[in-house]
Amino acid sequence: MKTIGKLTGIIALIAIFSVQVLATNYNVDKSKSTVKWNGKKVTGEHYGTINLKSGTLEVADKMIKSGTFKMDMTSIVCVDITSESTNQKLVGHLKSDDFFSVEKHPVSTLVLKKVKSKSGKVHTFSGDLTIKGITHPVTFDAEVALQDETLQAKGKIEVDRTLYDIRYGSGKFFDSLGDNMIHDTFTLDFDVVASGSSGMANIK
């Protein structure tokens, strides 16, 4: 009887532990999520949006453990230029081989591999960003909130475009650009909302 009691206790502990570490997948709600890009040059800046094609986050023990996001590069738009012809000219250039080579590489991917709690709701994420088929590591901070079955993450990723063979207008590779020089770093501001089925406590 004692042996049976011990076995029952061990099984109960295993069951409790399994519930605590059980991972839950959260799927990104594309209608509620946004990715905003911003690129700067000597004479000003341009900005717009890119749609998410898909996204999932794995959560366990009240922490994001991993995730994968795919950005639809064909959806790039510019929102700061009001002239339709000038706007389309810029977007066409961004989609060309001078920049993102969208016809050849219609999807860019971010794979999250490591997450650390920084302070309060802020977490530090590390992973791999693939643009134009080229992959490099990225690290960034994001504010994360998990409320019932909804997860929201807000943050900004700084990207050195030259690492992804985007050299157009870069002072690293071309001399005497003057006012035509474009900064090598652009940013991706994201506000991601995802939903899943979870009985875990809220992330405070």
From TrEMBL:
Entry-linked SMART domains: YceI
Domain of life from the UniProt record: Bacteria
Keyword set, alphabetical order: Signal
Record bears the keyword Signal: yes
Source species taxonomy: Bacteria, Pseudomonadati, Bacteroidota, Bacteroidia, Marinilabiliales
Pfam families: YceI (PF04264)
Protein name: Polyisoprenoid-binding protein YceI
UniProt entry tagged with the keyword Calcium: no
Signal peptide: 1-23
Domain Lipid/polyisoprenoid-binding YceI-like: 25-195
